Amino acid sequence: METLRQDMRQGVRMLLKSPGFTLTVTLTLALGIGANAAVFSIVNTLLLRPLPVADPQNLYVLATVHQENQEPHPISWKDFIDYRESRVFSDAAGYSIGFAGLSVDNRADRIAVAYVTGNYFSMLGVSPAHGRLILPGEGQAYGADPLIVLGHSYWKERFNGDPSIVGRTVQVNAKPFTVVGVVPESFVGTYALVEFEAYLPHAMLPQEEYRETTEKRDNHSIRVLARLGPGMSMARAQAGLDLVSKQLEQQYPDTNRTVRTRLIPERLARPEPNSADQNPYVAGVFLLLVGLVLLVACVNVVNLLMVRATVRQRELAVRAALGAGRRRLVRQLLTESLLLALAGGVMGAAIGRWLSGMIARIPLPADIPIRFDLSFDWRVFAYIAAVALGSGLLVGLLPALRASRADLNEVLREGGRGLADGSTRQRLRSALVVAQVAVSLVVLVAAGLLVRSVQRAQSVDLGFDYAQVLSLSMDVSQQGVDEVRGRAFYRALEERIRALPGVESISYAYSVPFGYYNVAEYLEIEGKPVPKDQQRAAVSYNAVGPDYFETMRIPLLRGRTFTAQDDQRALKVAVINQLMADRMWPGEDAIGRRFRAQGADSPWIEVVGIAKDGKYNYIFQDPTMYYFVALEQDYRAMRAMHVRTAGSPEALAPAVQREVRALNPQLPVYDVRSMRRMLDGPNGFFLLHMGALFGGALGLLGLVLALIGIYGVVSFTASQRTQEIGVRMALGAQRRDILRLVVGGGLTLVVCGIILGLAAALGVSRLMGNLLFGISSTDTLTFVTVPLALATMALVASYVPALRATRIDPIKALRCDG
Fold first, then answer.
1. pTM score, two decimals?
2. Other residues' Cβ atoms within 10 Å of the Cβ of residue 73
3. Which CA distances in Å does 152 have to 199, 507, 642?
C-alpha cells in the first residue's frame, strides 16, 4: 500500500511538471469518454434504468403477434382478461393511452392520460404523494367511478403543487370527476418518454372507444404489464402463454387465428413492444461507433506517451541503475497513465453531462408531454469509471513496457540521445497512425451513411405533397359537444377558414400522416372467403373530408374521390390505394367492389376510387394496403384540419386559431404547425435526423482526433530527421523535394489506414443495414467521398509540418548532435 502511495505521489509530481502535456492528454481522453458517457446515458434511460416501482425486474409486457403482423403490438381487452386469469401471472394490469380535456377555474387543458385498470397502481407498488390512487375494484363498470389521479409535474404546474386540489371536482371531457390523489414525483407512467398528466379508470374511456375496446376481441389496443407467479421462469411463462393462445384460437377462430402472445421484459419494450428486437441492436451500433471514437483518442494518447517515454529514457535508466526493477518502472508509468485517465474520466463525465443535457433539450415536434430524463445514475458513473480505467490501461501499457525495456548501458552512454528515432519505435508509431486512420474512416463512413439516409428520406415520394400545408388538431368531445353540434361546429369552422386570404383548399382528417393516431380493421372481402388456416387482413385507414385528396395532393389513379353527397344517409364508400386494389382484387377492376370490417353487422363499403400508394404511419413503413372513408359517414369528434396555403403556413396559423376561438373560446387547439414540421415527429424523420446528428458528431470528433494524430506524428518524425533534412538540403535538395519527403511519408500511412479502414467499414456498414433508409450499406457515393475527403484533410495535416521542415537552416542542422 505504501508503494502504491509513493507511485501516486511520484506520478502526480511528474504530471505537474509537464502541464501542457497533462492537459493535452486529459482533454483528448475526456472528449472520447464524454462522448461515450452521453451515448450510454441514452442507452441507460431506454434500456437499463428500471421503473421506480416495486420489484421492477419481475415486470413484463404482453404483446400480440399474428400472421399479418409479426411485429409485437398491444393485445385485445378480451384476450387480456383470459391471460390474466391463467396461472402464469401473479398479477396483470392494463392501460390505454389517450387525451382528454380537463377544465377547472375557467381554464381548459388538453392532457395526456392513461386509462388504467383498478389494479394498475397496486400491482406496480406505487404509493401516492397526496390523497390516494385508483384502487382494485374501481372502474369495472362503464362510468361507475369518475375519479382522476394527477401526474406530479402537471399538478405542480397547473395547480402550483396545492394539496387541497385533492377532493375537488374538475371537468373531464365536460363531465364531473373527483381528484382523489397525486402520484409521487419519481413516477411518470409506464410509457417510456411520455409523462402522463393524469390517470383515469379504464372504464372512463369515451363511450364509443370503450365499446370498441372491450367488445371486439380483435381490437388490439391494450398495453399490458404483468408479474410472473412465484417460481415461474420466463421460459415456463411463455410456454403457458402459448398454450392459452392455442386454446383461444380454437375457441375464437374468426379473431384469434394465428394470434400468439409474446412475453417481453419491460425494459426491452420501451416505448412500444415492437422495440424489443430493435433497441438492443441500435444501442449496440451506436456504442460501437462511440467506442471507436474513444479508440482513436486512445491511439493519440499512446503516441504522446511513447514520445514522452522516449524523452524520459535517461531518467528511467538512472532509476533502474539505483535498483528499480522493470516491474516497478512499469507500475510507475502505468500509475501515471491511470492518473491521466482518472482526470480524463472526471472531465469526460462533465462533458457527458453537458452533452446529455443538450440532447434532452432537443425539442420533439409533437404536442405531447415528453420526458427525456438523461440524468446520470450509478450505472452511467460505473460505465465512465470502467471506460476510464480501461483507457488508462490501454494507453499506458505499451509505452510502459517499451520504455522499461531500454538497454541501460546504451542509454547512459548516449545520454538518452539518438534513441528516439529508432526504427522499431518509428514503425510502431507509424502502425498506430495507420490504425487511427482506419478506425476514423470506419466512423466517418458510418456517419456518411446516416447523413445520406436523411438526404434520401427528404427526397422520397411519400405519396402526398406536404409543402405549404398547415395542420392543427382539436377534439370537440373534450368540451362535451355531441355529434350533432360537433358536425355543425366543424362545418362553420371550415366556412370561416376557407374565407381567409391565402387559403387555397381545406379538409379534415381523423389521423395525420406519421402521427400518433392510426386505426385498422380486419376486412372481409365480398365474395372472397378467407381460408380457415389464414387470418383476415388487417388494413389501416383514415376518415377524411371531401377535399382531402386535393388539399394533400394525393394523385387519384381511377374513379372519384369523396363529395358532399357522401354523407351519413348515403351508401358507404371508400377510396383505396393501388396496393390494396392489386392484392384484394388481383387481375380485376376494384372500382365497384365491396368490403367491410369483420362482423356480419358491419355495413358493406363500396370502392369508388383508387389512389396512388404512399407512406401513412411510419417513414420506415414498407408498402402497405390502405383505404380512406368519408368523414361524414364515419363521424370523429377529434379531427386534424389541413389547410393548403398560397404563402407560408406558419404565417396563417394565428388567423386560423383566432377563428377557432371565435367559435369556441375554451376549445384546446394543439399540434399547430406546418405539415413539413409534422413529418419531423417520432414516426417521421426525427429518428433519421437524430441518427445523422449523432453519427455526424461522432464522425467529426473522430476526424479531428485523427488529424491531430497525423499532424503530431508527421511533425515529430520531421523534427527527428532534422540532420537528415539538413544534409539533403546541403547536397542540393529543393524545397519541393523536402515537401515530397515529409508529406509522402505521412500520406503513405494515411493510404494504408484508408485501405484497412475500408475493409472494416464494409463490415460495420452491414451491421447498420436496418438503420439506413433508401441506400444500401455499400453506398458508392459514401465509400468514395469519405476516403477522398479524409485523404485531402490528412494531406493538409501533413503539409503544415512539412512546410516547417523546408525552413530548416542546413548549417544549424548539421551542427546539431541529433
1. 0.85
2. 17
3. 11, 38, 34
Mean pLDDT per 10-residue run, the chain (818 residues)? 67 77 88 94 92 95 86 92 90 94 90 96 96 93 92 96 95 94 95 93 90 88 94 93 93 88 93 86 91 89 77 60 63 83 94 90 75 88 94 81 58 47 65 86 92 86 93 91 94 95 95 85 86 78 95 96 93 96 94 84 92 89 92 93 94 94 90 89 82 86 82 66 61 64 74 92 90 88 92 79 64 54
Sign of the alpha-carbon torsion through 221, 621, 44, 228:
positive
Verify cis geometry, omega within 30 degrees of 0, for the bond prior to 529: no
Torsion sign (Cα): 730, 734, 739, 744:
negative
The Cα angle at residue 76 between residues 74 and 258, in degrees rounded to 5: 85
Beta strand residue intervals within 126-258, DSSP E = 130-131, 147-150, 169-172, 175-182, 198-201, 220-228
Measured distance CA(605)–CA(611) in Å, rounded: 16
Cell of 549: 385528396
Q: Which residues of 501-534 are buried (b: 16+ CB within 10 A; e: fewer)?
A: ebbebbbbbbbbbbbbbbebbbbbbeeeebeeee
Give the CA count within 13 Å in the CB-facing half-sphere of 338.
17
Residues 510/638, Cβ–Cβ less than 8 Å: yes
Residue 731's CB is within 10 A of a number of other CB atoms, namely 8
Q: What is the DSSP letter of 770?
A: G
DSSP structural state of residue 45: I
DSSP assignment of 377-441: -HHHHHHHHHHHHHHHHHHHHHHHHHHTTS-HHHHHHHTT-S-TT-HHHHHHHHHHHHHHHHHHH
Residues in the chain, how many? Answer: 818
